[in-house]
Design goal:
CATH topology of the largest domain: Four Helix Bundle (Hemerythrin (Met), subunit A)
Length: 156
């Protein structure tokens, strides 16, 4: 009787270990993204070339093309990069692809500009990294805020 009881316990432990192994393997192989990850049906877009060359880009054209293709989130990203470009050109910040939004915020001297940049960074992060489509009203508000700030940072 002791042998059968021990054998059943060993088999139960082996089954539990196999189940745990399969779960971990599924998560490592990205099959478990429905639990922890982003929706795999969404496109992965790499923007590193754009970010490396922001001083050479025509953001008005890129934004227009994004809007024509219905990609409002991409347009917001372009507005944000355009803002960084204008701020760098006017010596509010020093552009570096490795810097974070907090790094740029630290460089800005004026409290008013800091407040505006903080809000625009929040807006950008919320729209770009959020996994949802933005409606026309939200986009228009964001667009107007970015346009006004780009104009302000350009004229001072």
């Amino acid at each position: 009787m002791n042998f059968v009881g021990i054998l059943l316990k060993v088999v139960a432990v082996i089954i539990v270990v196999i189940v745990i192994y399969l779960i971990v393997k599924a998560l490592i192989n990205k099959e478990g993204q429905w639990i922890f990850g982003k929706n795999s049906s969404k496109k992965n877009i790499h923007y590193s070339d754009i970010e490396k060359n922001i001083h050479l880009l025509d953001f008005e054209k890129l934004i227009r093309e994004s809007m024509e293709s219905g990609e409002k989130r991409v347009a917001v990203r372009y507005y944000y990069l355009w803002l960084l470009k204008v701020m760098a050109q006017n010596n509010y910040i020093k552009w570096d692809i490795e810097k974070t939004n907090s790094d740029y915020l630290y460089e800005i001297q004026s409290p008013v500009h800091k407040e505006e940049f903080t809000y625009l960074s929040y807006l950008y992060n919320y729209i770009w990294y959020g996994e949802f489509e933005i409606d026309d009203a939200t986009f228009k508000k964001a667009e107007n805020r970015f346009k006004n700030s780009i104009k302000t940072f350009s004229n001072e």
